[in-house]
Amino acid sequence: MADTPLLSVRELSMRFGGLLAVDRVSMDVAPCEVVSIIGPNGAGKTTVFNCISGFYRPTGGEVIFEGKPMHRLPGFKIARAGMVRTFQNVRLFKEMTVIENLLVAQHMQAERNLLKGLFLTRGFRRREAELMDRAAHWLERVGLIEFANREAGNLAYGQQRRLEIARCMVTQPKLLMLDEPAAGLNPNETRDLDRLIVQLKEEEGITVLLIEHDMSLVMGISDRIYVVNQGQPLANGTPEQVRRNPEVIKAYLGEE
Amino acid sequence: MKGKLLPAFFAAGLTLLLGASVLGVQLQSQGIETVVVVHGPLTWLGLFAAAAVVFAYQLVKDRVQRVRQNARQGSRFRLPAFLENHAQRRLMIALAIGALLMFPFMAERSAVDIATLTLIYVMLGLGLNVVVGLAGLLDLGYVGFYAVGAYTYALLNSYFGFSFWEALPIAGGMTALFGYLLGFPVLRLRGDYLAIVTLGFGEIIRILLNNLTEITGGPNGIARIPEPSLFNLQFARRADEGYTSFHEFFGIAYDPTHKVIYLYILALLFALAVAYIIYRLMRMPIGRAWEALREDDIACRSLGLNPTGVKLSAFTIGASFAGIAGSIFAARQGFISPLSFTFIESAIVLAIVVLGGMGSQLGVVLAAVAMTLLPEIAREFNEYRMLLFGLIMVLMMVWRPQGLLPLKRPQMELKRG
């Protein structure tokens, strides 16, 4: 692990009324690393994600991203800081076209001056062309370029998943958070996803935080794994360490 | 065809049987006796005609249903091919604008006057389309902004003597401010709740205007609002001190139609400007953000868009268009009172948006024309106007729930080999 983590979560807790969904979870994610969070169903993985990405306001602990505290900020500000996430159930703008999905995602990079847009100034056109190019580049990367002008809702499920990742990537994030990206994918598509994540890490220098149930995917691409069980941190380490950890085996398979 | 003949006969026979027993014969008491009265040949002719209609319908029922299904499935109405081409479309638009500019010089004065009103509704429809059709915020109090625009001009004029052109930007800004102030607290509400609050807002404005008698004249309204001038040329018979009147300047006889035509052209230019601005907005980052927000606000947040800001912008921009429409309305009428800004106006504008097809500009323009012309044409059915209105809405929801011309995608296309 590098000495300065990109994301550092300290003693994160989330309480819903009487239910302590997340109980003092800590983790560090170093730049250019793929880190997975695993755990049985209902362990609180997605809640951890929601707290980090600002969709919930954690009831305790802190989230530090690039040295700045994030746990009090609303979701859109966290996204602007460079932490962008996908969702367990795909959330595309289904009635908009594929390319429009990617243009919306680049809202913060777009020329938003109303007058420049109304009068179609040269600067506005250049900026729009840049957005278009970046969108096209990422569509090519995820192999969806021929569907650019289709409605996103008409894509096959696996394609929608890839589009969602592309939509995150056009925002030029530092940390990509994927919530069960392989859910509902067939083995072929999972292999493609595996390759895509490795490429993102190696070619783009993207840090990836991942929740996943598909163990072959997790064990294959993760640099480190955090195991969460019933809201509490159970173990962490390299895939090899986690695989051998008796506590983890017990949580997954039940006691003898 | 053969298989349908028997059921068709059966249905026709059933119609005849039921119709005859209800309408054809009747029991009447004469003294202490009850006699069966058989009705005259006219009733029977009607019954046979009805049976024939049922028979014919049964034969073609399948086809009618197929047509209906096509109407429903073909939700993406395609424009005629010659309009798909960019250059030809431009030519058509230019021709249409030319025809609209020529119109007042050919038509009667009353027709031009109604056309002006139609154009005001076009503006309102386009403005509300931003809020409801694009951003997906159901606003039932849109008339409130319309009223703010109209009263801003009327009050500025009657108290401070502002001319139309001086008051117009202030009216636009004022309504935008109202949109912003209202939007701020209510935009965290969604769907039905937002609709109720905006409905209340529209009513508050109207009731305020009605009761602030010292300022707004209350139910008596504000009269003698001057029409706009053309570069300081006034359209009145006698110009104010220090001004020239239009007919004197050009050395022609005074004619009140000049004013009507001028107002029409003014409304036309404003409607075109509004249409163009919204056309551009839809292809700008802000327009894309509105649509994205309508579809999924959680995804928007996860991409760094501030939902409140995006909603507020839609609300504010939509409101300012209503303000401009309101000012033109005040100038056209010369007299405004709170009665012009009742809830029914909001409902009509909303109906225009829904009938036209949410988010579709051409659809909204057509619907606005239909909604204002229909009552004028059907003047004799004045009492049934609301009934007709409701009937059209119901029929539309059954036949084309997506509106006359639903929004056609895509707005942005990736053009590449």
Automatic annotation (TrEMBL), chain A:
SMART domains: AAA (SM00382)
Gene3D superfamilies given in the database record: P-loop containing nucleotide triphosphate hydrolases (3.40.50.300)
SUPFAM superfamilies, sorted: P-loop containing nucleoside triphosphate hydrolases
Superkingdom of source: Bacteria
Keyword Transcription set for record: no
Name of one Pfam family that matches: BCA_ABC_TP_C
Ranges of residues in domain ABC transporter: 7-255
GO BP of this protein: D-alanine transmembrane transport; L-alanine transport; L-isoleucine import across plasma membrane; L-valine import across plasma membrane
GO CC terms, sorted: plasma membrane
PANTHER family: CONSERVED COMPONENT OF ABC TRANSPORTER FOR NATURAL AMINO ACIDS-RELATED (PTHR45772), HIGH-AFFINITY BRANCHED-CHAIN AMINO ACID TRANSPORT ATP-BINDING PROTEIN LIVG (PTHR45772:SF11)
Protein name (database record): Branched-chain amino acid transport system ATP-binding protein
Automatic annotation (TrEMBL), chain B:
Alphabetically ordered keywords of this record: Cell membrane, Membrane, Transmembrane, Transmembrane helix
Name of the protein in question: Branched-chain amino acid transport system permease protein
Subcellular location: Cell inner membrane
Signal peptide segment: none
UniProt topology in membrane: Multi-pass membrane protein
A Pfam family it matches: DUF3382
Organism, scientific name: Modicisalibacter xianhensis
GO function term, MF aspect, one: branched-chain amino acid transmembrane transporter activity
Xref: PANTHER family: HIGH-AFFINITY BRANCHED-CHAIN AMINO ACID TRANSPORT SYSTEM PERMEASE (PTHR30482), HIGH-AFFINITY BRANCHED-CHAIN AMINO ACID TRANSPORT SYSTEM PERMEASE PROTEIN LIVM (PTHR30482:SF20)
NCBIfam families assigned to the protein according to its UniProt record, in alphabetical order: PRK11301.1
